[in-house]
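R.M. (postdoc): so does anyone remember the format we settled on? I'll just put the structure tokens first.
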């Protein structure tokens, strides 16, 4: 496929490559009616997927949890990504979005028949990772009570609690909410949580209440490879408030230093030294991936 401009950008829908305006799906799609589907977001740096296979493995795990059969093989997924990425400038950074819903019902029904055929959407758009303001100033976090369901480990499109909580955080002048459950800080509305206390990095352990982020895994691997101490341990709300540094990480935001929490300065009120070290190591890791695409 020849390179195309953003105007003619195509997406993949159920076997076809079409412009967004021509992408049509039934109103009886279960994703549309019930949020009955799963999704993935994969960062693409200069045409290379960052941990593409780990994202596909998590997609498989999410589909398994919902008893949806994966409609495509790894090779087929990869072929779609390659086709969509080829629309963009080879040096641009992009993000791939995948959505698989259980399929289209004959009419609205909470239950479903095993014969439904999943609906598959894949898009690829240009993404600006780590904007300059965020790097120099950091961002603002607030704590909010976690109102999500108890299977938050599944990456489902049913994100209403997350969107309501993020919107509430924004109305309070913040960029992200850190969700508190039973006095423990668990996760953000769209990111995983790390804190630093006395030069020790801490992140909550995997649980049903947390999506196990691929970016979180990368940070843990970087710590291990560089002999940086990082503990996977529960973080109490008090520990969060006393932290020297707070970071939130995700595929689309990389690692963001939060410099205020509930309008109070975190540490010195600017991105911390440990974050600075980690973001440099993260960028080095990305460069390695770009040189060795099989990661
Ligand atoms: N969300 N926790 C939640 C609730 C998330 O929504 C995300 C990412 C993460 C981080 O996961 P990862 O590092 O694999 O991106 C953790 C994506 C980016 C989104 O919903 O757009």
């Amino acid at each position: 496929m020849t390179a195309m401009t953003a105007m003619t950008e195509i997406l993949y829908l159920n076997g076809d490559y079409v412009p967004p305006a021509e992408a049509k799906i039934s109103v009886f799609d279960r994703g549309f009616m019930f949020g009955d589907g799963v999704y993935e977001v994969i960062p693409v740096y200069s045409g290379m997927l960052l941990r593409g296979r780990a994202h596909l493995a998590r997609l498989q795990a999410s589909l398994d949890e919902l008893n949806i059969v994966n409609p495509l093989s790894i090779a087929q997924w990869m072929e779609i990504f390659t086709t969509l990425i080829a629309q963009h400038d080879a040096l641009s950074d992009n993000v791939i979005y995948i959505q698989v819903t259980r399929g289209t019902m004959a009419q609205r029904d909470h239950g479903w028949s095993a014969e439904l055929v999943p609906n598959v959407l894949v898009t690829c758009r240009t993404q600006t990772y780590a904007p300059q303001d965020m790097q120099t100033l950091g961002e603002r976090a607030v704590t909010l009570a976690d109102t999500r369901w108890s299977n938050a480990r599944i990456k489902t499109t049913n994100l209403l609690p997350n969107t309501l909580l993020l919107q509430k955080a924004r109305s309070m002048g913040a960029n992200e909410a850190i969700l508190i459950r039973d006095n423990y800080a668990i996760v953000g509305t769209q990111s995983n949580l790390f804190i630093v206390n006395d030069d020790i990095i801490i992140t909550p352990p995997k649980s049903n209440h947390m999506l196990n982020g691929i970016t979180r895994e990368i940070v843990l691997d970087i710590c291990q490879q560089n002999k940086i101490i990082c503990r996977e341990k529960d973080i109490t709300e008090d520990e969060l408030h006393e932290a020297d540094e707070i970071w939130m990480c995700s595929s689309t935001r990389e690692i963001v230093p939060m410099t205020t929490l509930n309008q109070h300065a975190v540490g010195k009120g600017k991105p911390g030294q440990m974050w600075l070290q980690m973001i440099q190591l993260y960028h080095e890791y990305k460069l390695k991936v770009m040189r060795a695409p099989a990661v």
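R.M.: ...and that's the designed sequence above, right after the tokens. Also worth knowing: The helical segments are 30-34, 52-65, 74-85, 132-137, 160-171, 214-225, 237-242, 273-291. Residues 1-8 have pLDDT under 50 and may be disordered.
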